[in-house]
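Continuing from yesterday's entry. The apo prediction looked reasonable, so today I'm repeating it with NAP included to see how the binding region is handled. Same sequence as before; SMILES copied from the compound registry.
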Amino acid sequence: MKLLIIGHLGQVGVELQRALAPFGELFLADKESVDLADPDTIRQLISGIGPDVVVNAAAYTTVDKAESDFETALAVNGRAPEVIAEESARLRALLIHYSTDYVFDGSKASPWIESDEPSPINAYGSSKLVGEEAVAAKGGRHYIFRTSWVYAQHGSNFLRTVLRLASEREELRIIDDQVGGPTSARMIAEATALAIGSCVDLRAGAERNDRPEYGLYHLTCAGQTSWFGFAQEFLQWVAARRPNQKIARCVPIPSSEYPLPARRPRNSVLSNQKLKRGFGLKLPEWRTALHWVLEEMYPKP
Ligand SMILES: NC(=O)c1ccc[n+]([C@@H]2O[C@H](COP(=O)([O-])OP(=O)(O)OC[C@H]3O[C@@H](n4cnc5c(N)ncnc54)[C@H](OP(=O)(O)O)[C@@H]3O)[C@@H](O)[C@H]2O)c1
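Holo prediction written out below.
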């Protein structure tokens, strides 16, 4: 099989390289080889390779910057997925695309399910919703996985930012009134590999008769917490493992005390029931997956 990973240098992209390697020949594309804001480069990339599977892990993920640069966010998150879906459908390739919890407005008291009406409250969420809808509308073989609060031991994310600040400052003020599901890039990549295995007969390279229904699925680690709860968990873990390392005191604050350009949903916890029913997959608790990432970042001496 030929598998194309678009955005292989991103958080999820790096993990996909490892998780998808056993499936066949990997083709990797990032900004050097494709500009998602330019549909022609996308068409050239995909038709030049002729992949069996396309995984689009690239996105414009700078949530606050998207407020003042909506055109670029929309081009990368909204229009590029449409072109990727069109080309994948033309080649009958399986397309895996990722979306976000930020398509919801946060007003629900319980976890969001796939049939809940999206209603984004920021530009990033709006651009990602356009992308989801475009992929679905093209009607090709596709899975869209909505995930949330992504982090890894590499890349740009909340875990790494807070760890850096905690070593520089005395006190950190962290938002405690937004809840969601922290999800490691590693878990997303491994679940993606299992999903591809559920869909494709690897010996014949053909679609399996018993494959899960194509469409939209939520895919996050189990459980929920606030940004403060998430930070407390890893700061305490690091403090226990590295007693000599300076770790800032952490103070919970409401969102109103930390204004940012983009509004965030209060509750963006996603239900994973459909993933369980369709694929038989259940990701571990967010704490367990976090500890695995921390073990790699801070190996035992
Ligand atoms: N991060 C989160 O918390 C989060 C939450 C929910 C859902 N998601 C979704 O999960 C997926 C993976 O996210 P991630 O966190 O792995 O993203 P990431 O680490 O920000 O990586 C995204 C990659 O896309 C590349 N990219 C951006 N603009 C591009 C363009 N015009 N042309 C080509 N490549 C471009 C980036 O390159 P540069 O770094 O050079 O710009 C980067 O390598 C995305 O669909 C994202 O929307 C993420």
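Comparison notes:
- The first strand starts at residue 2 and ends at 6.
- The mean pLDDT is 96.
Will overlay with the apo model tomorrow.
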